[in-house]
Amino acid sequence: MKIDAVECFPLKIAPKQIYLGGDGGETGVPDYYYRDEYRCVYSRKMETCLVKVTTDTGLHGWGEALAPVVPQVPAILIEELLAPLLIGASPFDSNVLWSRMYDAMRDRGHVTGFMLDALAACDIALWDLKGKAAGLPVAALLGGAYRSRQPAYVSGLPLPTLDERLDLASDWKAKGFHAIKAALGYGVDEDVDNIRRLRERLGPEVALFLDAHWNYSVAEASELAKRLEPLGLGFLEAPLLPEDVRGHAALRAKTTIPIALGETERTRFQFAAFLDADGVDIVQPDVGRVGITETMRIGFQAETRNLAIAPHLSVGLGPCIAASIHVAAALPNTFMLEYQPPVFDIANTLLRDPLVCRQGHYEIPRAPGLGIEIDENQIRELGRKS
């Protein structure tokens, strides 16, 4: 069985609500805008790049690059640079193909960013293919699932006022979700007040995680953590700029709140810097940026330091979510997997049978490969409109 074709589908889907909050129905404005609070460019649409890899037997697998902006970029990289390396190869040689794709641009310094997103999409598709060929779900190919359901936490409370966010958190608790992540970045005093009120509303039985979106200095983050420690928090994510390895190590030494990071990193080589510096407690690679092969390596790398992994999962629209569930279930040191309700709902509109997350857990797909079936007619139609 040899790879015969590689096809990309960069998609841009207009949602009713913009990711992380906001009206999606606004017209006459650019797709991309700068969010001051996160110092980052976002899209008003749900964007992603799906990849279909087909063999000479007709069997195919689906992958996805996490591409929340300009998904046509990883599509071009796949079509022009990576597809020629895959065509004619066996999908069972996924480790070899990962290395060939990574090495293809390594000496030019393209060892992160869009190039690795493109690689991740291809890698996920190869695992989907292997699972379908073997008649086994990806988690089984990875060595088996350590748990029958994958614990999940609700990520974000994307409403404009604190009272609305508190009510939304209470609604999730009533639905059986006992782990919730809230956004920081309003300043130390306001952050502390907001999280204290959230803890008072939810009580001690709900785990609270915090995402600071790289907003603080070491001194500010240390002060924030010191004041938040009495609230019993599960982790503090992205407190400092992602390049600041030494700063994360210094912060970790000053607080008992576990430090989580990793959505910006793409390889075990990049995570090694944080591990060697003792700068992280929970690693958060994103399968849509890292791929299945490398996420497993990172998970085992963390395990050697007795650290947990909690894969990042934001705007993946189908294959990325399914791949994340399989990887999370197949690693012994998985803490929890992120759950983005608005994104999850849109993703399910692209699938013939929906993925399931309820009462605080993902159901692990049982069908061969990723265990999902893409509505290809809809994907092609969306691709024409994007």
TrEMBL record:
GO BP annotations listed: carbohydrate catabolic process
Keyword check for Zinc: no
Domain Mandelate racemase/muconate lactonizing enzyme C-terminal, residue spans: 162-258
Name the record gives this protein: Galactonate dehydratase
Cofactor(s) needed: Mg(2+)
Gene3D superfamilies documented for this protein: Enolase-like C-terminal domain, Enolase-like, N-terminal domain
GO terms assigned for molecular function: hydro-lyase activity; magnesium ion binding
InterPro entries registered for this protein in UniProt: Enolase-like_C_sf, Enolase-like_N, Enolase_C-like, Mandelate_racemase_C, Mandelate_racemase_N_dom, RHMD-like
Keyword vocabulary terms for this entry: Magnesium, Metal-binding
One of the Pfam families matching this protein, by short name: MR_MLE_N
Keyword Magnesium: yes
Transmembrane segments: none
